[in-house]
Design goal:
heterodimer; A: 153 residues; mainly alpha; 3 helical TM bundles of succinate and fumarate reductases; two-stranded antiparallel ribbon; 5 helices; 3% strand; B: 249 residues; alpha+beta; Ubiquitin-like (UB roll); Fumarate Reductase Iron-sulfur Protein, Chain B, domain 2; 2 domains; five-stranded mixed sheet; two-stranded antiparallel sheet; 9 helices
C-alpha cells in the first residue's frame, strides 16, 4: 500500500499549516456570504439551539446568587436570613423560576443528545438510544429525590 | 416577479471578479414536474444565458459538486425538485461560508486544505498485513465507520454551520467526520496524528453542537455525532496525557 504521506513534498509541514492559508484567505476581496448575525432565526432547529445556549446566561446569573448565598452563610445567621428574604423578592423569584425551567430544558436536551456522543454497537447495529438515555434520567431523578429529602425532611 | 402557469421564476446570484455589489438575475424557466433545480440551471445555460457559471457532474447525488443555497438552504441542486417550490420563485445562491469564485461556483481550496489536515487516508501501523496479503475486517469492524465513509464532500454541512460561518478557521463537519471515519477503521493507526488537528482550538471544541450539519447531509452522514465522539476521545486523550505525561514510553 502506498502511503500518501510518502508522496508529499519534502518540506516539513506543520499539522496546522492550513491556518496560514486561511489567514491568507481573509485578505481575499472575493465575497464570502455567510449565515449572518441572525442565523438563529433561520429555522426552528437553529432557534432551539440558540435557546439551549442562552440557558447558560440564566445559569450564570443563578450562580452569582448562589455565591452570594454562601457568602451570607459565612457572615452569619442574620446576613443569611436577610439574603433569603432578598431571594424571595419578586424579581429574584422570577429569575430563579426561569433558571429552573432553562436548567430543565438544558438537561433534557443534553440527555437526549448523549447517544450522539456515545455510539455503542451490538454486532453491526447501534444499541437503542434508550439504553443510554434512561440511566441518565434514573440517576437524575435519584439524586434530585435525595436533595429534596434533605431539604424537606 | 410574475408567475406563469407553466413557468417558474428563478432568481440567481451573479458575481464576476471585481464586482463590488451583490447582483441577481431573474429567469423564467419552463415548469416540468420531474425537473430538478439543476435542470432549470442547465436550461438557462443552454437557451437563455450561456454566461451563467455553476458546477455539476453526475446528476444523481453522488459527486457532490452541485451544492448551492436554494431559498437559503444548502441543497444538492440535482436532488431539489422544482415541484417542491412551484409556483413560488426559487432563489439560487452559491454555498454560504465559502469565497465565491464566479456566479454559483465557490472556492473549495479552504475545505480541501482542512480535509487534508486530518489525513483522510489509512495510516499504516502495527496492523499492516504480511506482504501480498489483504487486510481482514469483520462486518462489525466495518459497521463502526461505514456511515462516515458515505460522505461525498459536497460541503453542504459547512454552509449550514453557524460556527463555520462565524469562525472561518473551524476545521468543520465533513473534515472531522472523515477523520473519525479513519480513526474508527481497524486498519488505521493514525488516530494520534489526527488528534493534533482535532484537539486544536479550531478543531472539535469550536463546535457548539447545533446539529444542522447532520440535518442537511444528502447522504445521511451524521457529522454532528462524529464531532461529539471526537470530543470525547480528545478529552480522554488529554486526561491520559495528564495522568501519564510520558505515554507508554
Amino acid at each position: 500500500m502506498t502511503d500518501p504521506e510518502k508522496r508529499r513534498p519534502s518540506h516539513n509541514l506543520h499539522s496546522n499549516w492550513w491556518l496560514n492559508h486561511t489567514r491568507y484567505r481573509q485578505r481575499d476581496t472575493r465575497p464570502r456570504p455567510d449565515l449572518g448575525a441572525t442565523w438563529w432565526l433561520r429555522g426552528s432547529s437553529y432557534f432551539f439551539v440558540f435557546i439551549r445556549e442562552l440557558t447558560s446566561v440564566f445559569i450564570a446569573l443563578y450562580l452569582i446568587l448562589f455565591i452570594g448565598l454562601i457568602a451570607a452563610l459565612y457572615i452569619g445567621a442574620e446576613a443569611y436570613n436577610d439574603y433569603m428574604e432578598l431571594l424571595w423578592s419578586p424579581p429574584l423569584t422570577v429569575i430563579q423560576v426561569f433558571t429552573l425551567l432553562f436548567a430543565l430544558f438544558h438537561t433534557v436536551t443534553w440527555f437526549n443528545l448523549t447517544p450522539k456522543a456515545v455510539r455503542i454497537l451490538k454486532g453491526e447495529s447501534p444499541i437503542s438510544p434508550l439504553f443510554l438515555i434512561t440511566p441518565l434520567y434514573i440517576v437524575w431523578l435519584g439524586v434530585s429525590s435525595i436533595v429534596l429529602w434533605m431539604i424537606f425532611s | 416577479m410574475t408567475v406563469d402557469t407553466d413557468r417558474i421564476p428563478l432568481k440567481i446570484s451573479r458575481y464576476t471578479e471585481g464586482q463590488t455589489t451583490d447582483g441577481y438575475d431573474e429567469y423564467m424557466v419552463p415548469y416540468n414536474e420531474d425537473w430538478v433545480v439543476l435542470d432549470a440551471l442547465n436550461y438557462i445555460k443552454d437557451y437563455v444565458d450561456g454566461s451563467l457559471a455553476y458546477r455539476w457532474s453526475c446528476r444523481m447525488g453522488v459527486c457532490g459538486s452541485c451544492g448551492m443555497m436554494i431559498n437559503g438552504k444548502p441543497k444538492l441542486t440535482c436532488s431539489a425538485f422544482l415541484s417542491e417550490y412551484y409556483p413560488d420563485p426559487i432563489v439560487v445562491e452559491p454555498l454560504a461560508n465559502f469565497r465565491v469564485e464566479r456566479d454559483l461556483i465557490v472556492d473549495m481550496d479552504d475545505f480541501i486544505h482542512k480535509l487534508d489536515s486530518v489525513k483522510p487516508w489509512l495510516i499504516e501501523g502495527d496492523s499492516v498485513p504480511p506482504a501480498n496479503r489483504e487486510y481482514k475486517q469483520t462486518p462489525a469492524q466495518l459497521a463502526k465507520y461505514k456511515q462516515y465513509s458515505m460522505c461525498i464532500n459536497c460541503t453542504l454541512c459547512y454552509s449550514a454551520c453557524p460556527v463555520a460561518s462565524n469562525e472561518p478557521e473551524f476545521v468543520g463537519p465533513a473534515a472531522i467526520a472523515l477523520a473519525q471515519r479513519y480513526n474508527l477503521d481497524s486498519r488505521d493507526s493514525g488516530k494520534e496524528q489526527r488528534l493534533d488537528v482535532l484537539m486544536a482550538n479550531e478543531g472539535v471544541w469550536d463546535c457548539t453542537f447545533v446539529g444542522e450539519c447532520s440535518n442537511v447531509c444528502p447522504k445521511g452522514v451524521d457529522p454532528a455525532a462524529a464531532i461529539q465522539q471526537a470530543k470525547l476521545e480528545s478529552a480522554l486523550a488529554y486526561a491520559k496525557s495528564l495522568i501519564m505525561p510520558k505515554g507508554n514510553k
